Amino acid sequence: MKIALLDDNPEQLERNQRFLNALPVEIVTASLTAKTFLQEVKLSKPDILILDLNLGDSYMTGMEVAFELKLPVLFASSNTPEYVKEMERLKREESLCVDHITKPFTEYEFQKTFTRFLQEVKFFWNQHYVTLDLGKQKRTKIAIESIVYLVADKASGSESNNKQIYFTNRKAENLIDFSFSKMEDKGMLKTQFITIHKSFRVNVNHIKHYNKKEEVIEVEVFNAFGKLETMKLPVSENYQSFLKSFRK
Question: Ranges for the Response regulatory domain (predicted)?
Fold first, then answer.
C-alpha cells in the first residue's frame, strides 16, 4: 500500500520514513506542511496517511487534513490525548480505520503499531473493493464507492455480456464478461446497486436527483476531460416506485 507522511519536524519525518523502510509499503509523499502535503497527495494518491496533529502553522491541523482526505490514518503525535474525541468522530462518521501512537516512540513500537494498523486497513480494504476486468486490464482493484453506474454495452450487441462502467474518479471503461445476475458474487450488493432499468444498475449513494416528470435520475460521472459531468439515466416504469420516495 502507498503511504503519505506529514510531520513538521524534519528529523521525525526522516525517522518515520526510515521506520517504514523495513515494512511492505511504498512511501509516495513525505511533507513538512499541510499545504504542500495536500497538493502532493492529489498526484500520489496514497492509501494510508501518517499524520502529526499540531503542525506549527496556521494552515491546517493534522486532524483537519484527515477529515479533508477521508483516508485510513495513523496519527503519530505528542499530543494525541487531546484529540481522542475527534479521532472517534472521524472513525464513526467517515467509517475509516483510525489509530494513534504517542511520541516519543521507538522503532519497534512504531513498527508494531503500524503493522497491526495495516492488518486492519487490509481487512476493510478487501471488504470495500472489487476486482474487475476492465478492457485489457485484467483483475483491476476498484473501490466500490467510486462506481457510479453500469450499463449494458449496446455497441457489442445483445449477445455480449460486456458492460460500460462509470466512475467518480476515472473515465468510463469497458467491463468484460460481466453479468448483472452475478453482481453480488463480486461484492456489489443489490441494496447498494439498484435497478432503474433492465440495462442499468446504479450506485444509490451517487443519485443526485430523481426527476419524476422526465422519469430520469441524475448522477455525476468522471468524463474523458477529467471533470465531473451530470448525466441523466432513464427509469423504467417498473422501478419508479422506489425512486418516488427518494429524497436528495
Answer: 2-118
